[in-house]
Amino acid sequence: MIGWTLGRYLSARFLLTIAAVFLLISSMIYVVDFVELLRRAGNIQGVSAGDIAYLSFLRVPSTSEQIMPFCALFGTMATFINLTRKLELLVARAVGVSVWGFLVPPLAIAAATGIASVVLFNPVFAVMKHHADTIETRLFGRNGEQSNDTAPWIRQKSVDGEAFIRAGQVSANGTNLTSAAAYVYDRAGTFEQRIEAQTGKLLPGVWQFDHVRVTAPGEESFAAGTYLLATNLSPEEAVRGLIAPESVPFWDLPSLRAAAETAGLDGTRYWLQFHILLARPFLFIAMVLIAAAFSLRFFRFGGIQKMVSGGVGAGFVLYVAVKFVGNLGGAGLLSPLAAAWSPAVVASLLGAFALLNQEDG
At 323, is the pLDDT very low, low, confident or very high (cuts 50, 70, 90)? Predict the structure, then answer.
């Protein structure tokens, strides 16, 4: 087993390296985001560089949160490679410390960092992102004019049936829509009409669409000045349906999911995000095991570039797998539990298996 002194030394090295990698990548993201926002705000009157710098400061933490697993990967690889080059790990092996002994500090740091990122950092970062989205909507509209693939959707249920409403732009309070389209279904789930409108407004108990074209199956489309669609949504519930799960603090996700489903909205994305955050410490542990499998070899005769490339490639594949499986969960093709937990668990098992095969034959 690893001693207390050596454990503290390795823990400090891992923590400092991971923190340095995180700050370096976050600084790079901030510079790129600041320049891009300056470009977008170039033609807007009354917006100073200080305002853009503040907006970028609010936006960057939510992006940096997504690259935290990579920081664990890069920080662990850098620490192990540095310790190996200085022969410190060789000395530790010589006195009888196995690979599993000096993996205890990085695994403990990874687990603690993952838990802290979920219960402490995520709520702060989510509030900052929500505030940034509000400012960005005021300056640029809802992230600019959006395509049909990225436009926000509202799902509602009312006495007349179900409807899915899409909008090119949405006001900050969620009551005014631009370039709106509504897909209306009856209570039996049969598609009835498609409504395309230049504008839409949420009134008590009804959506009012203006300058409308209505299309129904088997009928010719026709134009109308106004179309009223019954709704049971309040402005707060309409805005809630547009809130990205990444903008919701970890502690509020279960209640927001329940409130969304009570209002007839789809709460799957919030439940999926909740379990993705719960699984994050295991994802950090998986990254440490992958890094160890690629960086714990003695490379006196070269091969360091190959090892680093292999570790980075494996981490990138894991990240893509997390995103891909998460998209399947968000689309309803996988349960949120399977989509959130399977990549981290499988990657941890594969990393442990690789180390067992490498160290213990």
Answer: confident
**Residue ranges per domain, the chain?**
4-141+272-359, 160-231
What is the helix (H) or strand (E) element at residue 179, kind and residue range? strand 176-185
Query: Who contacts 123 (Cβ-Cβ below 8 Å, separation ≥6)?
Result: 249, 250, 251
Q: Of 299, 328, 297, 294, nearest to 314 (Cα)?
A: 294
Q: What is the reported pLDDT for 148?
A: 43
Q: What are the tokens at 183?
A: 């897909």
Tell me the two tokens of residue 88. 């410190």
Q: In whole angstroms, what is the distance from residue 47 CA to residue 81 CA?
A: 46
pLDDT at 158 over 90: no
SS3 assignment, position 324: helix
Report d(CA 198, CA 182) in Å as an integer. Answer: 12
Q: What is the CATH number of domain 160-231?
A: 2.60.450.10
Name the E strands within the chain: 153-158, 161-170, 176-185, 191-203, 206-215, 222-230
CA-angle at 72, arms to 17 and 282, nearest 5°: 145
**Is the CB of residue 177 less than 8 Å from the CB of residue 241?**
no
- For residue 285, which of 31, 95, 115, 37 has the smallest C-alpha distance? 115
Say which DSSP state 333 is in: S
Q: Is the Cβ–Cβ distance between 10 and 102 less than 8 Å?
A: yes
Question: How far is residue 210's CA from residue 242's CA, in Å, rounded to a whole number?
Answer: 21
Question: Where do runs of H (alpha helix) occur along 41-103?
Answer: 49-66, 68-85, 88-94, 99-102
Cβ 198 vs Cβ 186: under 8 Å? no
Helices 104-116 and 68-85 sit at what angle, rounded to 10 degrees?
160
Contact at 8 Å (CB) between 183 and 167? no
Residue 232 has pLDDT above 50, yes or no: yes
Place of tokens 């001693």: 3
Using a cut of 0.90, tell me whether the model's pTM lies above it: no
Tokens of 298: 């003695």
Can you give the length of the chain in residues? Answer: 361
Q: What percent of the chain has pLDDT over 70?
A: 85
Is the torsion defined by CA of 42, 45, 47, 49 positive or negative? Answer: positive
